[in-house]
Amino acid sequence: MRSATEQLRALGVRLALDDLGAGYSSLLRLNSLPFDMVKVDQGLVHGIVANNPRAVPLVTGLVDLARRLDLRITIEGLETQILLEYAQYLQADFGQGHAISPAMPPQHVPAWVRNWRMPPLSGITPFASMTAPRGRGAGA
Questions:
Q1: pLDDT in tens, 50-108
Q2: Cβ pair 77, 99 in contact under 8 A
Q3: Which residues pair with 72 in a beta bridge?
Q4: Which residues have CB under 8 Å from 50's CB, separation 6+?
Q5: I want to staple 99 with a disulfide (CB 3.0 to 4.6 A). Which of 69, 84, 113, 136 is the partner?
Q6: Which residues are designated catalytic?
């Protein structure tokens, strides 16, 4: 498989690991293939608005890992303003979801690209407190 991916790269094709954090998108695959980008799985991202206490550190950790590997980052599942702002806070390279745009016919894309602007920030408290490491108590 490695030689096939190297041939694709030689043709200028760039590779993205889709759904990082779910299914077949394992860290072993990330380590063994020459990806240019990762797409953080929307299931993890949706955990943020579902108040899953592990979702923020997991997504933040995957983004940090991708940055250390010099990979571009897309965060999937940006369905709300707060998730859009979280992706912006993490400085994701790209985002995907209904907070950016619903699906549209291809002929509408050029006008959408010309006219789309990032919505104004909501003024929600910064996310730094959500990503700060927690102590484990005495003796940890």
A1: 989 999 999 999 999 999 999 999 999 999 988 998 999 899 999 999 999 999 999 99
A2: no
A3: 37
A4: none
A5: 84
A6: 76
